[in-house]
Sequence to fold (598 residues):
Amino acid sequence: MHRSLILVRRRLLQAIPVLAVVAIGVFFLIELAPGDAVDAYMASTGGGDAAFALRLRQEWGIEGAWPARLGSYLLNLLTLNLGQSLAFSQPVSHLIADRILNTLMLTVSGLGVAAGLGTIFGVAAAARPGSIRDLLLTGVALVLNATPGFFVGLLALLLFSVKLAWLPLNGISSLDAPQEGLGHVFDVARHLILPVLALGLTYMAIYQRLMRAGMLRAAASDYVRTARAKGLAPRRILWRHMARNAILPVVTMIGVQSSSLLGGSVVIETVFAIPGFGRLAYEAVTQRDLTLLVGVVLCGTILVILVNLAIDLLYGYLDPRIEV
Amino acid sequence: MASAGRRAAWAGAVGGGVLALIILAAAAAPLILPGDPLDMVGPPLQPPLRDWAFPLGTDQLGRSVAAGLAYGARLSVTIGAVAAFFSLVVGIGIGTLAGFLGGLVDDFLMRIAEAVQTVPVFLLALAIVSVLGPTPQSVVIAIAVASWPAPARLVRAEVLSLKTRDFVAGCRAIGMSPLRIAFQQILPNALAPVIALSGILVASAILVESALSFLGLGDPNLASWGSMVASGRAAMRTDPYLVALPGLAIAATVLAVSLISDWLTDRLRLTVGA
Fold:
């Protein structure tokens, strides 16, 4: 079998216990909440008698003592049934499927901005360590890292959407723009510029730091001295020899941070009113829809596992020495 | 390398100064600004520096921004420190046990750590706060539950490398109990990298708290920087200071903590020589 297929199979097998722990942990967390989905439903619809409550509990598979409920909950998950959202009167899986694309665009571009700019800034800072440029780039990255994403987002909104009116205020698309084709793509991209920057810039510092340290380490190494002695062009040494090695920890960090960015999307999507996965989590909390919240947490976990799998595959390609 | 170390020391001193000022404001808040910071005390939307009774102005409801910032500092600093402390205690305990006992216990604990690290931290915190209710205690619990795995893994790695050393064999030979060896002999030697991590834990705890309050999931009866930004948002176009001041307060605090933590990491690397 191909090397990367073996990796995919092994990673997916390793993901099973992780998902099981998360699913069971979330079940017991929700158990701590007073009342269940039927109580919430009856409170929001005007109530009903005990027999009706019993019938609903049986229908939704949440009747009986906790071991039985845990069992039916896990069985439902195995058949990819995440239950029914009370707040939206729709299956949780449909809601998530509707929203996930917006969040994927936001977080993947955000990771791209964070890692891309961080890498470039890191290389630029390492070119002359201790210089004003190094201080400035490292300082800017550090300040942005300390700033909450919602604050960066609000400032960007105030400047670019309200004062200068260059970019749309909120949402993911405009009603008066084309709804399909290239026009639609441009419209969505215009809506995503500020949220992506607000998300990406706050996570840039770690990449800048890793890249800077990696480049400094590479500059002091024997293989770079050899490359210089051979008379290779400095630009070629910088990118083909030094950056290629220094970028490996950056790639690892993208996987680690995918989980933080998905969490960060909750706040950013709320600030920019983007109908996405993170905003769905917020709506689940404010409307006390625990079934939906469980679905969102589980799907977020699966997403993080998949991103890390992709990173592992990329890693094997970037560094063939690694036995994947 | 010396100049980089001196720069980290300078940055650490600046961070320490800023953090000291913030802690001073937090501690002195009840003395210089008595009363509830959520009370309406003056005319609404007074800009900063106009009336010395409200040096930083008032918000849409006539609440003093200065009082909100000072009491918000109490909340942010306390939650940051307490949440980081509990993450460290839980993480160090679990990491030491896993590393020292090994085998099935280690496998089990590390699987759980891995699972917790896979769940997006903020989603987990959101879920915990929504179940336990919007109080500072549940925010602390949420942050601690979500962030113990990092210190646990660090301590476990240190313990694994320490437990094969001669001094541990010596302790065994004199009949010391395994628990005492783990917590009294090995643990103190494994702490250095964890201390470096504690600054990062405080910084991220403050950011998580502010984001939860911004979303309206903090305690509605306590002044907090995140909720000040959220309520100032409605008047942001005409009175940007309502958003800018609490936002800058969060950024300054987190920046100060991370500068101190960088300096600490630098110092520990020098003394440990790793």
Summary: The first helix of chain B runs from residue 2 to 32. Chain B has a mean pLDDT of 88. Chain B touches chain A through 48 residues (CB under 8 Å).
